[in-house]
């Protein structure tokens, strides 16, 4: 299910980048700032909040279940406080936060963030991959950020799928369907690499989610074949 | 006429490429520590020294056969003589001095004064001849005249030649040289104490028939043994006055020893950082390939860790001593050099094109990164430079400074959030493939001639048998990635297979690709 509202807390270069990238995906984007003197250019109207807020206004005006919050305050302590404040008020809100390092990432997760983007680690991962595995970096980057025709998608196995009740590894996904299946996510909400010992003996059931890479047309054909559709689930984040 | 001939010859030598090349060759193997052949020449010389010292020791109580004696006395001495002459030759350039004088005089519209030129040549050559190293070299040749028994002891001067070849001894002498004044003071103090105590003990004991001190030499010997706190006990004062002198000398001896020890310690403590730096630079010049990282802050620290984990050598330079200290504590080769200063790279003495894989400007400050990149670009146009970008408005400046790839963390946040919205699990999968902490990894396997011979097409690879997913083939020839290629796709040398799987299975698969021919 796609979220409809983006709540972005923090008025800085991170929030600018987030707005730029997600404005086409949300029907409603709300940008909040701690500083009342801030002004916006080419951005949604700025709203103000303070950390002791009880969020009653948001509670009334926003469908929390269909919203996603981005906590991007530059001060780590404030960002953690904001996250804990949002989580204590909104149990169902999906919260994404940024952190400068691993230590604050752990604190943010403890404070209730669903996903934390550790800036230092992510940046250094990108740099290392660019240097050490330039080809795979480029291919993954193109797949992930849709700069080529290759796409990555989450596809759910339908009730009438022809693969139902078959062993996962017994099917030659790559040759037969023109797509590459990287992993499968089953009922325990953990995704498993297709050749992991757990996934190896997995019998395909309706409801399983396959993470596939392929060209858009091939993915569509594959979806039709397994009687499925693109699938988004927010309740899990781990591999 | 003779003058003209000398000048022509000097100009000829000064401009002759083959002569200069030969001279440079001998200079490099004898004097240039960075030359890869010098160490072999040094080792050869060290071997000759040990052979001649070994012969000297054996000769004391045994007969040494004539061939070995001939080798030690004549062959080794001749080799040392050749070495001495070569060193004298390369120490300075006679032709250059004559040419410089000729140019100088011609410019001033005077007759060329060759006498002055030769005076200069003699001065320069004598300067070398009377240097400590050259004197030791010369003395080491002396055993050539071994018939003079006294000159045989000069073989031991060959041991002193070892100093020339042992770098640590050179470091030690350079460290001690910094305390020249203190050592001079110490030696004056010690000499005065030895002189006074020797005279005193001689005066007090010399006339006593029971005393072992009978000559001034014995008195000096006793003083030195006492001051050094060795105290053999073969010579001891027997009179009351003599023993009183002994008490004073013992106390003075303690002072001299303490002074000497503290001098050594302080000289080394003060020079320790410098010595370490020299050692680090020596280590760097021996590295084949490494990443040069300018700046050591948060991102740089993580990048260093990850690159090191992939068995890469990294060198960090930073102008801030605290950050350099932190890098050293983290176990990296780090130097307190300013990345924005050409001199820093001169000191490093590295070959950028051959040794440096890439330069990473990772200061969390655009101004510093631009400055460092421009500095490097000013003397090297080809090296790959990657930089962090902190403020997007500076992107053009970084690109203008010659940075090849810019990494903008804020942009990454935007892109990541965009992906997280649409396909969180898929994003996680890709993210994990990139992360070094994950068991499942993406890897690039290069196609070699051997692999092509045994696996001509994609269908022959049998990757699924190794539980490895083949994502695609990257064709270097046309710089294209072929996703999920058909079985009959031909593999070519230089292509890369992009595979996904557990690290251990990828390794197995890679091993299989390389060794199949042997197994079959």
Helix fraction bin of chain B = 55-70%
Strand order of the largest sheet of chain B: 3-2-1-4-5-6
Q: Estimate the mean pLDDT confidence of chain B.
A: 86
Q: Give the C-alpha Rg of chain B.
A: 35 Å
User: What is the 3D shape of chain B?
Assistant: extended
The fraction of residues in strands of chain A falls at 15-25%
Termini Cα gap of chain B: 81 Å
Beta strand count of chain B? 10
Low-confidence stretches of chain B: none
Q: So how many helices of chain A?
A: 9
What's the number of extended β-strand segments of chain A?
Answer: 10
How is this structure best described in words?
The complex is a heterodimer of chains A (239) and B (520). Chain A is an alpha/beta fold and 239 residues long. Chain A has helices spanning 13-22, 56-61, 76-89, 102-110, 119-132, 134-144, 173-177, 197-200, 216-225, and strands at residues 5-9, 28-33, 46-48, 67-71, 94-99, 115-118, 150-156, 180-185, 191-193, 209-215. The longest helix of chain A is centred in the middle third of the chain and has 14 residues, at 76-89. Chain B has 520 residues and is of the alpha/beta class. Chain B has helices at residues 2-15, 17-31, 38-61, 66-91, 94-107, 114-129, 132-141, 149-152, 155-165, 167-177, 180-205, 216-227, 240-286, 298-309, 321-329, 342-348, 352-355, 366-379, 395-400, 409-422, 424-434, 449-454, 503-519, and strands at 290-294, 314-317, 333-335, 356-361, 385-388, 405-407, 440-446, 469-475, 480-483, 496-502. Chain B has a six-stranded parallel beta sheet with strand order 3-2-1-4-5-6, with helices on both faces. A four-stranded antiparallel beta sheet of chain B has the order 7-10-8-9. In chain B, strand 2 (314-317), helix 15 and strand 3 form a beta-alpha-beta unit. The longest helix of chain B has 47 residues, at 240-286. The termini of chain B are far apart. The chains are: A alpha/beta (239), B alpha/beta (520). At the A-B interface, helix 1, helix 5, helix 6, strand 7 and strand 8 of A face helix 14, strand 4, helix 20, helix 21 and strand 7 of B.
């Amino acid at each position: 299910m796609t979220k409809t509202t983006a709540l972005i807390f923090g008025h800085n270069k991170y929030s600018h980048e987030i707005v730029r990238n997600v404005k086409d995906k949300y029907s409603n984007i709300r940008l909040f700032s701690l500083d009342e003197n801030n002004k916006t250019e080419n951005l949604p109207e700025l709203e103000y909040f303070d950390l002791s807020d009880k969020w009653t206004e948001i509670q009334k005006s926003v469908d929390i279940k269909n919203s996603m919050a981005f906590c991007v305050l530059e001060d780590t302590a404030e960002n953690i406080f904001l996250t804990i404040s949002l989580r204590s008020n909104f149990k169902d809100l999906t919260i994404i936060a940024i952190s400068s390092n691993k230590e604050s990432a752990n604190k943010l997760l403890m404070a209730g963030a669903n996903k934390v983007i550790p800036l230092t680690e992510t940046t250094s991962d990108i740099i290392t991959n660019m240097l050490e595995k330039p080809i795979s970096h480029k291919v993954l980057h193109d797949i992930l950020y849709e700069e080529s025709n290759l796409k990555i998608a989450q596809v759910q196995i339908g009730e009438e799928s022809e693969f139902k009740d078959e062993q996962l590894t017994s099917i030659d996904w790559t040759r037969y369907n023109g797509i590459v299946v990287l992993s499968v996510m089953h009922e325990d909400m953990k995704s498993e690499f297709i050749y992991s010992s757990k996934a190896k003996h997995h019998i395909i059931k309706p409801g399983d989610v396959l993470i596939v890479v392929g060209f858009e047309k091939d993915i569509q054909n594959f979806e039709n074949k397994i009687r499925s559709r693109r699938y988004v689930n927010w309740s899990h984040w781990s591999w | 006429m003779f003058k003209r001939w000398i000048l022509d010859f000097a100009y000829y030598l000064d401009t002759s490429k083959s002569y200069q090349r030969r001279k440079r060759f001998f200079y490099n193997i004898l004097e240039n520590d960075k030359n890869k052949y010098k160490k072999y020449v040094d080792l050869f010389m060290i071997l000759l020294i040990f052979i001649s010292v070994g012969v000297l020791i054996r000769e004391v109580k045994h007969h040494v056969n004539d061939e070995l004696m001939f080798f030690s006395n004549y062959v080794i001495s001749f080799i040392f003589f050749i070495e001495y002459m070569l060193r004298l030759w390369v120490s300075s350039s006679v032709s250059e001095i004559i040419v410089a004088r000729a140019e100088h005089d011609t410019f001033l519209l005077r007759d060329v004064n060759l006498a002055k030129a030769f005076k200069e040549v003699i001065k320069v050559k004598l300067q070398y001849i009377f240097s400590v190293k050259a004197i030791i070299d010369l003395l080491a040749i002396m055993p050539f005249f071994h018939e003079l028994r006294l000159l045989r002891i000069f073989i031991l001067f060959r041991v002193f030649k070892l100093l020339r070849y042992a770098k640590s001894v050179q470091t030690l002498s350079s460290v001690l040289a910094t305390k020249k004044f203190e050592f001079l003071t110490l030696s004056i103090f010690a000499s005065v104490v030895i002189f006074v105590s020797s005279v005193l003990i001689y005066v007090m004991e010399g006339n006593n028939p029971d005393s072992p001190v009978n000559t001034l030499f014995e008195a000096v010997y006793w003083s030195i043994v006492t001051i050094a706190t060795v105290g053999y006990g073969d010579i001891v004062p027997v009179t009351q006055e003599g023993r009183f002198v002994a008490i004073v000398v013992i106390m003075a001896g303690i002072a001299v020893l303490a002074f000497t020890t503290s001098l050594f310690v302080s000289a080394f403590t003060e020079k320790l950082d410098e010595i370490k730096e020299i050692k680090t630079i020596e280590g760097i010049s021996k590295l084949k390939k490494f990443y040069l990282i300018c700046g050591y802050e948060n991102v740089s620290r993580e990048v260093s860790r990850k690159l090191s984990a992939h068995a890469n050598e990294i060198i960090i330079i930073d102008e801030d001593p605290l950050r350099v200290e932190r890098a050293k504590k983290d176990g990296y080769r780090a130097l307190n050099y300013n990345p924005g200063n050409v001199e820093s790279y001169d000191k490093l003495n590295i070959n950028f094109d051959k040794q440096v894989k890439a330069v990473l400007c990772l200061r969390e400050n655009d101004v510093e990164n631009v400055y460092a990149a421009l500095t490097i670009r000013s003397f090297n146009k080809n090296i790959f430079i990657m930089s962090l970008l902190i403020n997007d408005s500076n992107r053009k400046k970084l690109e203008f400074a010659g940075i090849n790839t810019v990494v903008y963390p804020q942009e990454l946040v935007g892109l990541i959030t965009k992906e997280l919205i649409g396909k969180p699990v898929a994003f996680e999968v890709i993210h994990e493939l990139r992360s070094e902490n994950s068991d499942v990894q993406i890897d690039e396997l290069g196609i070699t001639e051997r692999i092509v011979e045994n696996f001509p097409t994609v269908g022959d690879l049998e990757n699924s048998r190794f539980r490895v997913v083949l994502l695609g083939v990257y064709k270097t020839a046309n710089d294209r990635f072929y996703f999920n290629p058909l079985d009959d796709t031909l593999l070519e040398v230089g292509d890369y297979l992009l595979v996904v799987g557990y690290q251990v299975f990828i390794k197995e698969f890679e091993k299989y690709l390389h060794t199949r021919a042997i197994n079959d």
